[in-house]
Amino acid sequence: MGKRKDDRGGAKASIPVYGLALAVVPTHNPPVPDFSRVKAVYFDLDDTLCGYWDAAKGGLRAAFELHPVPGRSLEESLAAWAREFRRFAHELKTSHWYEIYLTQGGVTRTQLMNETLQSLGIEDPELAWRLGDVYGRERDARLRLFPEARDVLEALFGRYPLGLITNGPADVQRQEIETLGIGDFFEHVFIEGEMGLGKPHTSVMRRAELAVGLEPAEILFVGNSYAHDIVPASEAGWRTTWVRRPSDVPPSSSTGKPEERPPDGPVPDLEVTTLLDVLQPLGVATGGLAHQP
Ligand SMILES: [Mg+2]
């Protein structure tokens, strides 16, 4: 068998390493990245460890079913909410709402319902409050860890210091951690609402580096958002794993498809569709895990 440095083993190893022979190297089995320098792992929360968008979609439906908008179908109401969400989310971080949003998610949630109703020609603050309240509670009730997430956290716990870096209001994010029962896995938790700023500010990554006392290249970030997780972690000099799941589509999406990487953006060290695939590069055996595919 050939002994070239980049051999991936098997029958391909004896193929000459020039000309067209390179084209037969399988592309479905990318090389395992070298994470041997990694000494700590930070995770994003929503749609990395738990299915936030699925919970949000279920919560929204429950809210509009329990409190129907007069004269409007469920689908019309959901479409109006999605339109207003796209606009409101765009404005949120540059308006006076951001300060309120940081500490408590309920106020801006109600405001978004208010603006949804107004966009449908309805002025009813009490209905807006009821819709926002049911949406928040029903979303939380539907929040679930992805099937393999707990096993992966358990496999890494004790081998690496683990941390969480999540955007969102302080009360909502703390409630999510409580609901999911994962707080004990993490030595360090950074929440946008508690810091007063969130990803993609690279200063967030700097705080996280100080917390673990490591060099940027010794930290791995695992996240689902290219723009909010992969870009700032790459710019900070961290190693990156991009989690890409088919469920990662917001209820406000106008495309119905998960986020794509812009052609000129930084390339993640690893792309996965299940968290199990971060274990091997981190030197953790997957043999005993219950949720192996
Ligand atoms: Mg996320």
Mind telling me the CATH class of the largest domain? Alpha Beta
- What is the gyration radius calculated from CA atoms? 22 Å
What would CATH call the architecture of the largest domain?
Answer: 3-Layer(aba) Sandwich
Helix content: 40-55%
- Strand order, sheet with most strands: 3-2-1-4-5-6
Summarize the biggest pleated sheet. 6 strands, parallel
Number of strands: 6
Number of helices: 10
CATH fold naming of the largest domain: Rossmann fold
Which percent range describes the beta-strand content? 5-15%
Structural class: alpha/beta
Number of domains: 2
* Spans where pLDDT lies below 50 across 5 or more residues: 1-27
Describe the model.
It is a single chain. The protein is an alpha/beta fold. It has 2 domains: 40-51 and 144-282, HAD superfamily/HAD-like (Rossmann fold); 53-142. 40% of the residues lie in helices and 9% in strands. It contains 10 helices and 6 strands. The chain has helices at residues 52-66, 74-92, 97-103, 105-119, 125-142, 149-156, 170-180, 192-195, 202-212, 226-235; strands at 40-43, 162-166, 188-191, 219-223, 239-243, 270-272. Strands 3-2-1-4-5-6 form a 6-stranded parallel β-sheet, sandwiched between helices. Helix 10 (226-235) links the parallel strand 4 (219-223) and strand 5. The longest helix has 19 residues, at 74-92. The radius of gyration is 22 Å and the shape is elongated. The two termini are 31 Å apart. The model is unreliable at 1-27 (pLDDT under 50). The structure holds magnesium ion (MG). Residues 44, 46-48, 223-225 line the site of magnesium ion (MG). Magnesium ion (MG) is lined by residues 44, 46-48, 223-225.
